[in-house]
Every structure is written in C-alpha cells, then in structure tokens.
Design goal:
It comes from Streptomyces gibsoniae. The chain is built from three helices and seven strands. It has 168 residues and is of the alpha+beta class. A hairpin with a 2-residue loop joins strand 6 and strand 7.
Length: 168
C-alpha cells in the first residue's frame, strides 16, 4: 500500500486477495461462519448473531466485541448489506446508511481453486478513528494511513488463516 494522503471523509478503501487450493464451497463455508472470525483476528474478540439470526442474510445483524492497544475495548453492531450465497458477504458497521466501516468478502472460482478477497472501507460515519482525528486534526492523513496499514496486515493474516483451514 502506498501513501495516498487520504482523509477519513474520502472513505478510503483497501483490498487484499489470496488464492486457495480448495473448492469455493469450502472457502465460502469458512467465510460465512462468523463464529470463526475471532480466532482469525487479533482485534475481534467475540461475535454473535442478533435477533435470532443463525447466519448471514441481507438485513441480519451481529455484534462484534473488539480490543486494540490504542483504542481500548468496544463493541459494534453490523448489518448484512450484501449476501450472494457462494459469492459475496458484506456488512456495514453501525448505521448502514452512514457506516463507520464496510467490509466485504468475495469468493471466486479460479485456476482449480478459489480466489478469496477481503475489502474494507473506512467511514464515512464516525468511529474510534474519528476521536483520534478530533484530537490531532493536523495528523488526519497519517492517522488514516496508519490505520489502513494495520487493517491491511490484519486482513492478510485473516486470509492466510482461512487459506490454512480450507486447505487442511
């Protein structure tokens, strides 16, 4: 990832992909099981479906409990905004109309295996990052860049763990 100088209001995005030597159905089953995600993330501590939901569907909600050295502990409610079985699973964090972040997994058959990508967008709604920017507005671009770099590393690690499980 190269320095872009993006501001939070720009809704900066990033995407990381990997190829997995496993069928798309196997990869998809791992991506859609949100109960596995805390074991694949340093930040996400626990997650559970809300309102009696048992799995992803547009409109379903889940709560995630997270922890970060600089931001402390917090929880967010996410809303599934896109769900195409076997292909796409996306959710908006907090307000779907003005999310603090949007996350998306995409699964595609490729070269006898599966291409898995994870994409994310910061903002435009307020998040923990907003408070850091409020305290140091002159450093906004650096704060955004550093957080995107953290997410890039975390996403790469998550994809690697999904790959290991799918190929096992």
């Amino acid at each position: 990832m190269e320095w872009t100088g993006a501001r939070y209001a720009d809704k900066p995005t990033l995407e990381v992909s990997t190829w997995i030597d496993a069928p798309p159905e196997r990869v998809w089953s791992l991506v859609c099981d949100i109960s596995l995600m805390p074991g694949m993330s340093e930040e996400l501590q626990s997650v559970e479906w809300l309102d009696g939901a048992a799995g992803p569907a547009v409109g379903a909600r889940f709560v995630g409990h997270s922890k970060h050295e600089a931001f402390g502990e917090w929880h967010t409610t996410s809303h599934v905004i896109e769900y195409e079985p076997g292909r796409v699973f996306a959710w908006a964090v907090e307000d779907p109309a003005n999310p603090s972040a949007v996350w998306r997994f995409r699964v595609r058959p490729k070269d006898g295996g599966t291409e898995l990508s994870e994409w994310m967008q910061l903002g435009p709604g307020r998040s923990g990052l907003s408070f850091a920017i409020d305290r140091m507005p002159e450093k906004e671009q650096k704060i955004v860049f550093v957080r995107l770099r953290e997410f890039e590393g975390a996403i790469a690690a998550t994809l690697e763990k999904i790959k290991e499980r799918a190929e096992a």
